[in-house]
């Protein structure tokens, strides 16, 4: 083992070069870590590359980390000069061992802005760092900066092109956006599986949807469906359920806005493809083909249609929550999620009732709980909920927002006499659910959470007008 300062310098320089060569030999490395090894037993490199896994023997970390750390600080203090290649190698080594060192990310940010470093390389480096440190806040912050700058560059390139190439470029941007979304969702999922209740990973996932898929109902719908299996396997992960609450709230807002302004949206085919499901376009054209003009009655029908679609989402979420509570008793996260979903639905229903009362007439007053039903043609669409963890309902693939789940506007008048689903989330049904849980409960924690939920229903929901 090296002892003198000169020997340490030679050793560390060789290790840094070995890490760089490992990435050159295998550009598909997908995970890195430290191999427990108290001392060097063989006269060989401490860098181990097996298939797509990169490992650093622990005995050399105590030499390697201080060396690259001091080199970078001396460079920032203008006391030591490093060329660009050396900067990239040192910062890469340092961030794989300590991704929360902000100075290293700032140096790489300067290299990105100067055009020396490609954003894809930093996204790849961040992914590797998260495989070892999945909660690293500095890595997530740097990743958001990369995503934002990449999107801005793509938009600037698109604006600078001619109209003739605009259509092809728009399709390319759409494909790139889809790939970026898929990549970011995959990184967030891997990090969430490696670290329970990984707030930083879930916050990044929300940020990505807000900045790259805002208004895209299909993306949000697919996320809500594909996350059913994940939360069913992580019933104590509050961050995962908070993500579902975010999706429900965004979908409720977007569906309400879309149904309220469909005639305006349809004037822009490009906006229609990115924000409105294809079935909406078909339904609107069908209405125009019959010679019907979008008037006050049609607008109200569209609003009712959007509300009933939102009701179906909340109905499925409450079913999932009931199934998980009964299958996995004693998890406070599930009861907290149910409380939030019911409160969100309660407020949404109150707003809808107030709108119906003010506008007065198309639905003749505000709907009662028993009036909330789906059209005859939409009864089969409940099957998209899939199978659950106990054999009832659980989605295995992302759910498509198509004609099977959105009734036609021409059939919206049948909402009042449609096929009734099981009762919507309401105070009596919630009391019945809690009573059933308490009757069959043998888990003391489950009983405590059920009683607390019942008390919340009486004191918060029951006291509201």
From TrEMBL:
Q: Which family does it belong to?
A: Belongs to the protein prenyltransferase subunit alpha family.
Q: Which PANTHER family is this protein grouped with?
A: PROTEIN FARNESYLTRANSFERASE ALPHA SUBUNIT/RAB GERANYLGERANYL TRANSFERASE ALPHA SUBUNIT (PTHR11129), PROTEIN PRENYLTRANSFERASE ALPHA SUBUNIT REPEAT-CONTAINING PROTEIN 1 (PTHR11129:SF3)
The name under which this protein is listed is Protein prenyltransferase alpha subunit repeat-containing protein 1
PROSITE patterns referenced in this protein's UniProt entry, alphabetically: PFTA
Q: Where is this region: Disordered?
A: 151-174, 268-291, 387-407
The yes or no answer to whether the keyword Repressor is present is no
Gene Ontology molecular-function annotations: protein prenyltransferase activity
- Ranges of Polar residues composition bias in the record: 268-290
Where is the chain membrane-spanning?
Answer: none
Q: Which Pfam families match?
A: PPTA (PF01239)
Looking at the keywords, is Transferase present? yes
User: Which GO terms of the cellular component aspect does the record hold?
Assistant: cytoplasm
Q: Which UniProt key words apply to this protein?
A: Prenyltransferase, Repeat, Transferase
């Amino acid at each position: 083992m090296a002892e003198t300062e000169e020997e340490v310098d030679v050793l560390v320089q060789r290790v840094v070069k070995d890490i760089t060569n490992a990435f050159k030999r295998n550009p598909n490395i997908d995970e890195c870590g430290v191999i427990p090894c108290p001392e060097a037993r063989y006269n060989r490199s401490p860098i181990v590359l097996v298939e797509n896994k990169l490992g650093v023997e622990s005995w050399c970390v105590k030499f390697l980390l201080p060396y690259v750390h001091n080199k970078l600080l001396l460079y920032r203090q203008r006391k030591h000069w490093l060329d660009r290649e050396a900067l990239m190698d040192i910062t890469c080594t340092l961030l794989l061992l300590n991704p929360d060192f902000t100075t290293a990310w700032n140096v790489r940010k300067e290299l990105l802005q100067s055009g020396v470093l490609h954003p894809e390389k930093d996204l790849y480096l961040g992914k590797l760092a998260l495989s070892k440190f999945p909660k690293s806040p500095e890595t997530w912050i740097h990743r958001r900066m990369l995503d934002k700058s990449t999107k801005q560059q793509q938009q600037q390139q698109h604006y600078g092109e001619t109209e003739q190439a605009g259509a092809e470029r728009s399709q390319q941007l759409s494909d790139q956006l889809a790939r970026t979304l898929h990549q970011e969702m995959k990184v967030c999922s891997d990090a969430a599986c490696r670290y329970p209740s990984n707030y930083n990973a879930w916050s990044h996932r929300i940020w990505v949807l807000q900045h790259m898929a805002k208004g895209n109902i299909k993306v949000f719908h697919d996320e809500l469906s594909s996350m059913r299996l994940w939360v069913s396997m992580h019933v104590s992960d509050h961050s995962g359920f908070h993500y579902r609450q975010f999706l429900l709230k965004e979908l409720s807002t977007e569906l309400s806005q879309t149904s309220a302004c469909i005639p305006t949206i349809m004037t822009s085919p490009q906006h229609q493809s990115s924000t409105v499901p294809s079935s909406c376009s078909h339904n609107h054209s069908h209405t125009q083909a019959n010679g019907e003009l979008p008037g006050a009655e049609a607008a109200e029908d569209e609003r009712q249609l959007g509300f009933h679609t939102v009701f179906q989402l909340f109905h499925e979420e409450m079913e999932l929550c009931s199934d998980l509570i009964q299958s996995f008793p004693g998890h406070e996260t599930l009861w907290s999620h149910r409380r939030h979903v019911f409160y969100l639905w309660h407020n949404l229903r109150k707003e809808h009732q107030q709108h119906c009362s003010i506008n007065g007439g198309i639905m003749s007053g505000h709907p009662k709980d028993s009036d909330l039903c789906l059209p005859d043609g939409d009864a089969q669409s409940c099957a998209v909920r899939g199978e659950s963890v106990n054999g009832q309902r659980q989605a295995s693939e992302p759910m498509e927002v198509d004609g099977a789940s959105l009734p036609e506007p021409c059939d919206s008048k049948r909402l009042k006499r449609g096929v009734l689903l099981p009762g919507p989330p309401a105070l009596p049904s919630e009391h019945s659910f809690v009573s059933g849980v308490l009757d069959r409960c043998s888990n003391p924690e489950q009983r405590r959470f059920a009683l607390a939920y019942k008390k919340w229903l009486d004191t918060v929901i029951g006291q509201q007008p």
